[in-house]
Automatic annotation (TrEMBL):
PANTHER family: ALPHA-L-IDURONIDASE. The keyword Hydrolase applies. Keywords: Glycosidase, Hydrolase, Signal. The lineage of its organism: Bacteria, Pseudomonadati, Pseudomonadota, Betaproteobacteria, Burkholderiales. Belongs to the glycosyl hydrolase 39 family. The keyword Hydrolase applies. Residues 30-523 form the Glycosyl hydrolases family 39 N-terminal catalytic domain. Coiled coil: none annotated. This is Beta-xylosidase. Residues 1-22 form the signal peptide. SUPFAM superfamilies: (Trans)glycosidases (SSF51445), Glycosyl hydrolase domain (SSF51011). It comes from the Bacteria. It holds the Pfam family Glyco_hydro_39. It comes from Undibacterium hunanense.
């Protein structure tokens, strides 16, 4: 909370300090449209969450509609607990679909009612499931009791790992359940639709999510049976993994198993592997009451994962999905119990997201791998206090600043182009040291299309302090037009920021109808100023801006 107070105090001096800062030399950034770097693939258009039953609730449906609308391509959604037993009641780090039970004679009873409602919600919005085969139904769990957990923020994480976290007691019944689920999906949504999904097994088996005597060998067996069941049901389905929490021996051994070792379900060599997935997280902490982010930990794990995949010639060009790519690990741990998570409501989360996603493109380029998606593990939490500091995109139906970064990214398309200039931190430097020196990370991600150029510019620092920032001179070279229109979108303390608006109205926990409408408006992406019309001279223009610390701009040129 001290970080919030500090930021608010600094904001009082913001207007006065702008004048002083504007006398310092501008940070010069150059965008060269002639120097292409690769496709502007929508690696950011992937989202995930623990609680699948939020999908069909009021605020969940609203947020999914907004997420679907911000992307020009289908958004992929990953959720836990799609096979967990229960009545479909949502709770923190819990969910259920009750798709499998057994009668008194042990015969299977399949019920697709709840899972259909969840997947219908996605498909209606032209979203695609990253369909997770997990967790273990109670009737199939090797250790079924206790089954349902009642975790709350502040409790130990290990308390979550109950009967759902165990392997199947009968592999054949479990494989048949998977087969029937995939076949049902094909019958309900059509083969072409299900062919566009991705199927995966479990979550972080190398962490606490799988309880077994030999976790590695048990997971490999589970993967072999699950992949075989998926492919028997739909040979053209896409299956991959292992969605490990860390990038180490378990991850590497899984790749070896899928490529070279005997399959425990079929007896053949190897297992189907249509994509590779792993997780990467940062590590924020409190330093004298102020949040300090750990972007270097986040990006170094991504770099290490890409390096391991690239070391296998057989995996050249295989799609890679960073199944959870976040500043830290527990979305449901709010800032009351975890004060280091106070970054989540304001613009630090926005600038971190912009800076980290841009570097994911760079790391993939450097390692020569095919990065398909990076799942932002944040959604929404129903019936929770306003701005409680959960890692979410919206609170009580009101969009938080971070969602506007994804709106900005959704406006970028075409080819990525080179950005150079007065850059304090390149990707390698951020991986090695983070952003902790005196200078902030002012940089940009740029893309060009046939008739437009879009430049995402951020001013990021690991330490949660907001100030006037720096003047920036953004030069775009190689424009094949005489005139253009400039739209400048901004996320800062005064723009695209429902949290700042909420604090300004006194931080109400029961806002009235008019206040909610005001907050909803403040949560939308806003322009910094009216659109401008510029004359292009010698195929280039220069745009000047004052970019506060932890702010993000999107400059969109059309011609």
């Amino acid at each position: 909370m001290k970080s919030i107070i500090l930021s608010c105090c600094l904001l009082l001096a913001l207007a006065a300090s702008v004048t002083a800062h504007s006398q310092t030399p501008a940070v010069a950034l150059q965008v060269d449209l002639a120097r292409e770097k690769g496709d502007m693939k929508p690696i950011w258009a992937w989202f995930g969450y623990d609680e699948p039953n939020y999908t069909t609730m009021k605020d969940g449906k609203k947020l999914l509609s907004e997420i679907a609308a911000l992307s020009p391509t289908p958004v992929y959604v990953r959720a836990h607990n799609l096979m967990t037993s229960g009545d479909g009641t949502a709770a923190l780090k819990w969910g259920s679909t009750d798709m499998y039970k057994e009668d008194k004679d042990g015969k299977p009873i399949y019920d697709w009612t709840i899972i259909d409602k969840i997947f219908d919600t996605y498909v209606e919005r032209e979203m695609k499931p990253l369909a997770q085969i997990g967790f273990m139904p109670e009737a199939l769990s090797r250790v079924p009791q206790p089954y349902r957990h009642n975790w709350e923020p502040g409790k130990k994480y290990k308390d979550i790992m109950t009967g759902w976290a165990y392997p199947p007691k009968d592999y054949n019944k479990w494989a048949e359940l998977i087969y029937q689920w995939v076949r049902h999906s094909v019958d309900r949504y059509g083969q072409a639709e299900v062919e566009s999904w991705y199927w995966e097994l479990w979550n972080e088996p190398d962490g606490a999510y799988l309880k077994a005597e030999d976790t590695e060998r048990e997971f490999f067996k589970m993967y072999d049976y699950a992949a075989d069941a998926v492919k028997r049901a739909l040979p053209t389905a896409r299956m991959g993994g292992p969605h490990t929490a860390s990038i180490g021996k378990f991850f590497d051994n899984f790749l070896k198993h899928a490529l070279y070792e005997p399959n425990m379900a079929t007896g053949k060599i190897g297992a189907p592997l249509d994509f590779v997935a792993f997780h990467a997280k940062g590590s924020p902490r409190l330093i004298n009451g102020v949040v300090q982010m750990g972007i270097m930990a986040h990006l170094s794990k991504i770099d290490r994962g890409f390096s391991i995949v690239a070391s296998y010639p057989e995996l050249k060009n295989i799609p890679i999905i960073i199944g959870e790519s976040d500043p830290e690990g527990c979305a449901a741990c709010g800032m009351q119990t975890n004060p280091e998570n106070a970054y989540r409501n304001g613009t630090l989360y926005s600038s971190y997201t912009a800076a980290s996603i841009a570097r994911e493109y760079e790391i993939a380029d450097r390692r020569g791998v095919n990065l398909l998606g990076a799942v932002n593990w944040s959604f929404e939490f129903e019936d929770q206090p306003w701005f409680a500091g959960f890692r979410d995109l919206a609170t009580n139906g009101v969009d938080k600043p971070v969602l506007n970064v994804f709106r900005m990214l959704g406006m970028m398309s075409g080819k990525r182009v080179e950005v150079s200039g007065d850059i304090a931190y390149d990707t390698e430097a951020v991986i090695k040291t983070g952003v902790r020196a005196e200078r902030t990370d002012i940089n940009a991600l740029a893309a060009k299309d046939k008739k437009s150029v879009s430049i995402l510019v951020w001013n990021y620092h690991d330490t949660d302090i907001i100030d006037a920032g720096s003047p920036v001179a953004l030069t775009i070279k190689g424009i094949a037009a005489d005139k253009l229109t400039v739209h400048h979108y901004r996320i800062d303390e005064a723009h695209s920021n429902s949290y700042a608006a909420w604090k300004k109205m006194g931080s109400p926990q029961n806002p009235n109808t008019a206040q909610i409408a005001e907050l909803e408006k403040a949560g939308q992406l806003a322009e910094l100023e009216a659109p401008a019309h510029l004359q292009v001279r010698e195929q280039q223009v220069t745009i000047h801006m004052q970019l506060p610390r932890q702010a993000v701009s999107l400059v969109k040129l059309s011609y």
